[in-house]
Design brief:
By secondary structure, the chain is α/β, with parallel strands linked by helices. 33% of the residues lie in helices and 19% in strands.
């Protein structure tokens, strides 16, 4: 859809950690050999990049952002995975729900009538 619409100011970033982090960190099959930038180019993106090194990306980011789009950037990431699938992880509220609602109402100027 993006390649077909050809938005000239669109930059699409794919952060690839080669795993299904939300379900426990299982590896994506054949992830190290998938050429997402090549797939994007074949799908019709004007320009496609692939990086596995942050320094290389930083050196090229100005050029990337000046390209006429759609532009695709695939970036390999080091996964940070909790071993428990997301549905079994312990959830901790940052603040009580009532407090969050009260703060939201105050910031919006809504009064409890």
């Amino acid at each position: 859809t993006i390649a077909g619409q050809k938005p000239s100011n669109f930059v699409h970033f794919l952060m690839d950690n080669e795993c299904y982090a939300t379900t426990g960190g299982q590896p994506v099959p054949n992830a190290q050999d998938i050429d997402y930038a090549g797939m994007a180019k074949e799908a019709g993106y004007s320009v496609a990049y692939s990086f596995d090194n942050l320094e290389d990306f930083a050196t090229n980011v100005e050029k990337i952002m000046s390209e006429t789009g759609p532009v695709f950037v695939a970036m390999k990431m080091v996964p940070e995975v909790e071993n428990e699938p997301i549905g079994r992880r312990q959830r901790r509220a940052v603040r009580p729900k009532a407090q969050a609602i009260k703060e939201l109402q105050e910031s919006l100027g809504v009064t409890d009538s």
